Amino acid sequence: MAALQENQSLTEARLAQVPPQGAGWANTARGAALARVRAMGLPQRRDEYWKYTRPDSLVQVEAPKAALFDHDTGSVFEAGERLKIVFVDGVFDAVTSDDLAMEDVTIERLSEVTNTDIHWAKDVYGELEARGQNPVARPLAALNTGLASDGVVIHVRGRVSKPINLIYIHNSTGSDAILHHVIRLDPGTELTLMEDGPAAARLNMVLEVDVADGAKFHHVRSQGRDHERRAVTHVFARLGAASLFKSFTMTANGKLTRNECVIELTGDDAVAHVAGVAMGDGDFHHDDTVFITHDARACESRQVFKKVLRNGATGVFQGKILVKQIAQKTDGYQISQALMLDEDSQFLAKPELEIYADDVVCSHGSTSGAIDEEALFYMRARGVPKDIATDLLTLAFLAEAVEEVEDAALRAAINAQLEGWLLRRRG
Amino acid sequence: MLNINDLHVDLEEEDKSILKGLSLDIEAGAVHAIMGPNGSGKSTLSYVLSGKDGYEVTGGTATLDGQNLLEMEPEERAAAGLFLAFQYPVEIPGVGNMTFLRTAVNAQRKARGQEEMSATDFLKMVRAKAKELKIDADMLKRPVNVGFSGGEKKRNEILQMAVLEPRMCILDETDSGLDVDAMKLVAEGVNALRSKDRGFLVITHYQRLLDHIKPDVVHIMADGRIVKTGGPELALEVENNGYADILAEVA
């Protein structure tokens, strides 16, 4: 009883923040979201879903301070052509952002959209998040829907000529960003979205993606190199028939990261791949929590998560594949692996399969281990110094996840970051 | 060139002596063979010389061109010109064969104070050498030894040897797991590398490899030391009479 009261007061304290005012539909969506938060309560340590990750610093009213990291050399995806949308500490920055006009796509700011009386976004904003609350509660996502003040709303109507790159700059040590993005892809369309940067001292980000029949969505994300920042992110996706959804996240450093991805395969023959690489050194806690629901026939899902941990870093993986009775011919795959570069680090994994259809193929695996000593000796015996050999083996370990990025230039940009991270930690 | 004197080696994990006073001198240009029954310490010798963990040298010396091998890291031994063709070449998923070779070549050149090889020159050189060993472009692109047959793995070892051009080559049971044709191909690769500046130590159970790689000197090893040394005829004697006769004779 005491625990319940404690949680209620915690939740109420956080909800004392007044949500931004908007038009009717937005206020309704926000009000409903905050009601969901009240009903669920904000996450606590004793919640089963937060068993491996302490939610305290994500829940508390004030964002814990995070020093600025001044070694960042700009966007990871600098090379290619893209439309840049910049947020500084979670606030849209018109000066450094590109013009949002582009053919076959409408890009609007969330704050504009929530002020219009009628907007398609009302069918997605908070809707996919609400669907994703069952069977597992995700209160911090509902909190985001209730309180988000900025973000982008993107409607894709054709094959977009260049990727959209959301750039998140962290510029203030106490910043607390709540960003909410909504994307709708019409049937047969295609979009690549990059996200890049730490965003704030504390980030709560929700991305809702509605992928219509035959549409393709590619998501490539880098969460910056800040050491002290915290982040909780949720990606909610609903996939139509024969659609494709691919999401890849690179995380280097960061005190605390919880990346949730909730995917619903609602049309036959849809494909969803979620992948991530996380590199942690020292005060680093990284949690990938994935929930994929197969609710249509002959869909394919893949979860590929790799972590490199050293100096007491912690990696967490909670991944679930739920195959409903209707979802015959499902092809599901899940792998989570950690490479420990010393004996101080830890990896906690909870892979789950729940299958109600009888004609499915689902495989899963989870491992943690050290560098392969046999391979290391073999390479050294050919003259490759130990540090270079270790880096090559580490990159090889990460390769299966990085290969989930389809675009060769983006893949090269990711690999360059990973190599740099390893290089700075040599010897 | 390679001088081993009264080498004593224990296994680190268990209190067990493997090499018990082994001495061996191999001069440049010569091919020496070591034969011996299972458990005589042949593979241990190759691992200790190349610097694998898990062995403790309790006495004796091993030098290559006067440099103390036993004090060097494995990569330093390689840069000094030592090469071990593995009995069981290691599979390295995710590391391309070409990337591996090029990293090895350039690391060795750097260690020796030479300039790195350009990508074009390297590619040209590897392709030419691969062709001689009937290694196709696909094998070069694949991850190191992953999905290779036994014969392909051994050919890949010889390719690495040809590309790295070591001073001293140790072949640890290179004939194991090979059919006659594959063995011939490997032997041809090795013979092509024979030169007055290079020494070879061929470790084998059987005489048949020595039909193809003709040794100058044959040693019989038993219980951690060399018990008999002779010419190529010694290998034939083993083939005809087995080890028992020789061991009885020296006991």
Descriptive overview:
The complex is a heterodimer of chains A (427) and B (251). Chain A is of the alpha/beta class. Chain A has helices spanning 2-15, 24-40, 56-59, 110-113, 127-131, 139-147, 373-381, 386-402, 408-424; strands spanning 83-88, 91-92, 105-109, 152-156, 164-169, 176-185, 190-196, 202-211, 216-222, 230-239, 244-252, 256-265, 271-281, 285-294, 300-310, 314-323, 331-340, 346-355, 361-369. Chain A has one domain. Chain A has a 10-stranded mixed sheet with strand order 2-1-5-7-9-11-13-15-17-19, with helices on one face. The longest helix of chain A is centred in the first third of the chain and has 17 residues, at 24-40. Chain B is α/β, with parallel strands linked by helices. Chain B has a single domain, classed as P-loop containing nucleotide triphosphate hydrolases (Rossmann fold, 3-Layer(aba) Sandwich). The longest helix of chain B is centred in the C-terminal third of the chain and has 18 residues, at 233-250. The mean pLDDT of chain B is 92. Classes of the chains: A alpha/beta (427), B alpha/beta (251). The interface between A and B is medium-sized, with 22 and 31 residues.
The amount of helix of chain A comes to 10-25%
The side-by-side strand order for the widest beta sheet of chain B comes to 6-9-10-3-11-12
Strand elements of chain A, count: 19
* Class derived from helix and strand content of chain B: alpha/beta
Number of helices of chain A: 9
Distance between the termini of chain B: 30 Å
Q: Work out the number of β strands of chain B.
A: 12
Helices and strands of chain A: which structural class?
alpha/beta
**Quaternary class:** heterodimer
- Biggest beta sheet summary of chain A: 10 strands, mixed
Biggest protein-protein contact in the assembly: A-B, 22 and 31 residues
Task: Characterize this entry briefly.
The complex is a heterodimer of chains A (427) and B (251). Chain A is α/β, with parallel strands linked by helices and 427 residues long. Chain A has helices at residues 2-15, 24-40, 56-59, 110-113, 127-131, 139-147, 373-381, 386-402, 408-424; strands spanning 83-88, 91-92, 105-109, 152-156, 164-169, 176-185, 190-196, 202-211, 216-222, 230-239, 244-252, 256-265, 271-281, 285-294, 300-310, 314-323, 331-340, 346-355, 361-369.
